[in-house]
């Protein structure tokens, strides 16, 4: 724990020192009537390419590119530092023109999505750990199907053994749609346990009218309803992380492309040699 804190303190201190040197350099350029836009632009473009390398590092873990945790640490602090670097590059003003505005929008969206991802990747795993055991996202549809089959078999067996149809009718009307169908998109945006609580309350209310055999099956259904809700929560939270990563990467590469074009155009209009 101590080494982790000291490593974060070292990374934060290094970032502040580098940014302070960049701020001092840009101020010195202004005092001497120089231009810092090309210098800050080069540094900003280089940092964007460095940040994009993290995704390649994750796909090629066998390469000796330091540990994944070190890469993540560098990715986070460099990404936070680009906010100051971007401000220095545009001289802390709103961009004008189509190309500059496009870059600003892409950068802003990428930066905000990165902050959201940083929060989610820190909080979602802890929430999932409190719910149940780890579940692989790709196996969730199969696990849901298994739960539905178990619920149907348990109810059919209760109907056959007891001859009563109360639990069977309740299952057909209320629980079968729950086990058989997927959650709506609103649940994935904001997961909640309202449906779970409502179904469990209805099962509890109905339990006193059931036969002994049906009550045993009712206890099984209690567990299956909770398990299905846990799977839905896993699906929603993991879907959120996957969609975030898709969006973040989907913004990163257009940002790199437009920023590169911006640098090329800036050189051309400045009359510089490429």
Structure explained in plain terms:
This protein is mostly helical and 274 residues long. It has two domains: 2-132 and 248-270, no CATH class; 137-238, no CATH class. It is built from nine helices and no strands. The protein has helices at 2-31, 37-59, 68-89, 98-131, 140-162, 166-180, 185-189, 194-207, 212-270. Helix 5 packs antiparallel against helix 6 (166-180). The longest helix is centred in the last third of the chain and has 59 residues, at 212-270. The radius of gyration is 28 Å and the shape is elongated.
Which descriptors apply to this entry?
mainly alpha, 9 helices, 82% helix, elongated
Architecture blueprint of SSEs:
Elements: H1 2-31, H2 37-59, H3 68-89, H4 98-131, H5 140-162, H6 166-180, H7 185-189, H8 194-207, H9 212-270
- Cα(first) to Cα(last) distance is 48 Å
- N-to-C order of helices and strands: HHHHHHHHH
Helix content, binned percent: over 70%
SS content category: mainly alpha
Portion of residues in beta strands equals under 5%
Query: Average pLDDT across residues?
Result: 89
| Unreliable stretches covering 5 or more consecutive residues | none
Q: Shape from CA axes? A: elongated
How many helices does DSSP assign?
Answer: 9
Radius of gyration: 28 Å
**Major beta sheet, specifics?**
none
Count of individual beta strands: 0
Q: How many separate domains?
A: 2
């Amino acid at each position: 724990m101590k080494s982790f804190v000291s490593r974060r303190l070292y990374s934060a201190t290094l970032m502040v020192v580098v940014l302070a040197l960049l701020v001092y350099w840009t101020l010195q350029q202004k005092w001497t009537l120089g231009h810092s836009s090309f210098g800050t632009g080069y540094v900003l473009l280089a940092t964007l390419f460095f940040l994009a390398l993290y995704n390649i590092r994750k796909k090629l873990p066998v390469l000796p590119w330091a540990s994944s945790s070190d890469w993540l640490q560098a990715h986070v602090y460099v990404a936070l530092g680009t906010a100051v670097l971007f401000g220095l590059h545009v001289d802390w003003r709103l961009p004008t023109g189509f190309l500059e505005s496009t870059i600003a929008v892409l950068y802003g969206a990428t930066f905000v999505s990165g902050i959201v991802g940083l929060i989610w990747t820190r909080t979602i795993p802890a929430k999932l750990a409190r719910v149940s055991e780890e579940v692989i996202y790709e196996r969730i549809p199969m696990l849901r199907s298994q739960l539905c089959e178990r619920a149907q078999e348990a109810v059919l067996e209760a109907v056959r053994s007891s001859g009563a149809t109360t639990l069977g009718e309740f299952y057909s009307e209320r629980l079968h749609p729950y086990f058989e169908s997927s959650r709506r998109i609103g649940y994935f945006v904001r997961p909640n346990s309202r449906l779970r609580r409502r179904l469990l309350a209805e099962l509890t209310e109905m339990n006193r009218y059931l036969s002994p055999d049906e009550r045993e099956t009712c206890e099984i259904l209690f567990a299956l309803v909770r398990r299905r809700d846990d799977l839905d929560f896993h699906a929603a939270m993991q879907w959120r992380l996957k969609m975030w990563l898709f969006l973040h990467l989907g913004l990163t590469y257009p940002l790199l492309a437009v920023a590169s074009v911006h640098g090329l155009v800036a050189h051309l209009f400045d009359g510089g040699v490429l």
